[in-house]
Amino acid sequence: MNIHIIKYRQYLWQQIGKSPKGFTLIAILVVITIVGILAAIAIPSFLHGRRIINTVSVAKTYISSMNKIQEGFYLENQKFAASIDALKFERSARHTQNYSYSLQAESQAVFHFATPKAYAIREERILFVDREVREPSNLIGFVGAVFVVPKTKTKDSKIVSIVCMGDKHSETLLPIPMLKDNVPVCANGTYWVK
After folding, report:
1. Contact call for residues 139 and 119 (beta carbons, < 8 A)
2. How many Cβ atoms sit within 10 Å of the Cβ of residue 61?
3. pTM of the prediction?
4. Residue in 46, 133, 47 with CA at minimum distance from that of residue 98
5. Which residues touch 182 (CB under 8 Å, ≥6 apart)?
6. Sign, CA torsion 46/49/122/90
7. DSSP character at residue 67
8. How far apart are CA 143 and CA 164, in angstroms?
9. Which residues pair with 183 in a beta bridge?
10. Kind and range of the H or E element at 27?
11. Phi and psi at residue 154, in whole multiples of 5°?
12. What is the dihedral of CA 89, 81, 160, 162, to 10 degrees?
């Protein structure tokens, strides 16, 4: 036999014994399976988090809208509305699925409350069937305030407002904001939200 053929055969046998370069089909399938399992775990948690954010965002928007409507009501009537119905709020939001809304009016201030309910209701779809699920609420409350800042020697009276968010879940009314040096500030246990 030719010496070149023998050396070529030895070279091929050496190459077969070495580790392969690249990925095998089984390795790729294992990685795809692991990624699929992780996605199946993470996606529902992500969607649940988004649902909570949207629910809280609606409550914050309601309180902000009530503040704006009260500002207009005061400018027209020189007093604050004593009830949510008197505001003629577009959705007459006394209760939604997850929050109860109320207000407390005084002569120089009005406070709006969004209090989370004990159980939140969320919609769930299983095999093309929609259903509502009650689960313990972990939502946080909001309080909005509109103040009339009294006029001074140099300035006319003005209206200022603030929206504060609770720092933890509570099914009771949050502490009301106050005026400090004619600037609204949130009470302890709440913080200001834009």
Report:
1. no
2. 13
3. 0.65
4. 133
5. 149, 160
6. negative
7. H
8. 5
9. 180
10. helix 25-77
11. -105, -15
12. -60
